[in-house]
Amino acid sequence: MSFGFSGNGSQPPSLLDTLIDSLKCLPGVGPKSAQRMAFHLLQRNRDGAKNLADNLNKAVKEIGHCANCRTFTEHDMCVICNDKSRLSNQICIVESPADVFTIEKSTDYKGMYFVLMGRLSPLDGIGPKELGLEILEKRLTEQKIEEMILATNSTVEGEVTAHVLSEMARKQGIKTTRLAQGVPVGGELEFVDQNTIAQAFNGRKHY
Amino acid sequence: MSFGFSGNGSQPPSLLDTLIDSLKCLPGVGPKSAQRMAFHLLQRNRDGAKNLADNLNKAVKEIGHCANCRTFTEHDMCVICNDKSRLSNQICIVESPADVFTIEKSTDYKGMYFVLMGRLSPLDGIGPKELGLEILEKRLTEQKIEEMILATNSTVEGEVTAHVLSEMARKQGIKTTRLAQGVPVGGELEFVDQNTIAQAFNGRKHY
Fold this sequence. Notes:
The structure is a homodimer. Chain A has about 210 residues and is α/β, with parallel strands linked by helices.
């Protein structure tokens, strides 16, 4: 979208147009929000904008992946992998760094993580190598891991990935577990999808 | 919000925490969206992030106000003020540069603009000086303006501002008009607020 102030098209886009356009790289931000953001920053928060620009630059330059678990960090190893108080005999496998955050916030899990940074998807060219499964296999061999918790998403690709990982663990005699599937807490049955109901029904427990 | 990976609080926040925090300067972006944006940029669009940082820096540094109408521009005068084909005998007064955009997009108005960059609000220390009314008065005296279109917002402050501006124009014998108030196009009466209904009723026209 052009802000429309660049005249008849023979001129280069204005700085404002360029800014609005580049704000659209943010997820969930369309032309309308991008415009609102640009005006807000220019009119009311130029310091915030400068600060954001600095931190974007710094983050893009310095944030890489943890050598041990592959999550985002600006150091060699992330805070969790460096934390000696955590249990090294449990490893939880997730698809993305955001999942690590979600689990840390919601549970009292004190073990280690491994972040795949994706899921198996051969059609998109994402195979075992892209997910760093070699690094994971090495960890499984070298570290005394007793339980592998499969916390990949509950999608088709996530399930396939979990299956492949469980095979890998089984070869080394490591116990694998998978997050329970069922009705969400606080959810009304009426609004839960059929697949979930079916899973919850089959997986019913003593009460 | 801390991303929670900065350990026990004795360490400085991680770069990721800092990035998430600074994304919250964007309007409508809370902790959750900021986190999603940071992960998205780092995981999938580092070029976009770098580009955004560059454009933010450039915009903050170079975008100022048009000497004639006070809208945003990186030049001395904005594209509209520089456009010789526009009618110089009409001037439309708006509160913010976004309003200029809205009017340009929705109407075929071909006159000039003046952007107040705010509205009269003495309690917040916003008086005639902050709104550049001197510049506007000078334009009214020097340029042959025949009609002043008051397009300030339909809020209490916007109405007060419009009133003050109309007084200013009247002194110089300039005709003032105000955007019509009434039922929004496509709106159902049932869902229109009482004040608007009252205005629309009083302002009813021959049909």
